[in-house]
Prior knowledge:
Elements: E1 2-6, H1 13-24, E2 30-34, H2 44-52, E3 74-77, H3 80-83, E4 95-98, H4 111-133, H5 137-140, H6 144-154
Parallel strand pairs: 1-2, 1-3, 3-4
Helix pairs in contact: 1-4
Amino acid sequence: MNVLFLCTGNSCRSLISEAVFNHLAPAGWRAISAGSQPTGKLNDKALALLASKGISTEGYYSKSWDDLPLTPELVVTVCASAAGETCPAYLGPVLRTHWGVEDPSHVAGTEGEIDAAFEQAYATLRARIEAFLALPLAELQGDRAAFKAALDRIGHIDA
Length: 159
């Protein structure tokens, strides 16, 4: 299964999602991330957080949804802006869900408060990815409506 995590800038939340998914997913499954308006640079705090968790980001970069190396079967938006955008037509009738998470890169405050925001975003995204990987996917893939409902419920899980 190929999963695309979308966020407008593709620098923080979608990067975290891509890296965590690829770290936890079974062989043959792959996540990529992209943005509708990529910043062209990955967030340094997100990279440091992932490194501290032992999660590789080697080869990852901020990219446009126009330059995907594969066609996803599932698109997960992780920011409200991306959720409201229309996916490119070439993605076809892809299954979509929204797992919105506040952007920790926009938090103002002490270093501790900013770090806590990144930890919270990571924990929430990881909990949702773990819930996704625990679904009875063989069963759900045959029932698009049930699969969509299960994915949408996951979007309400908080860490």
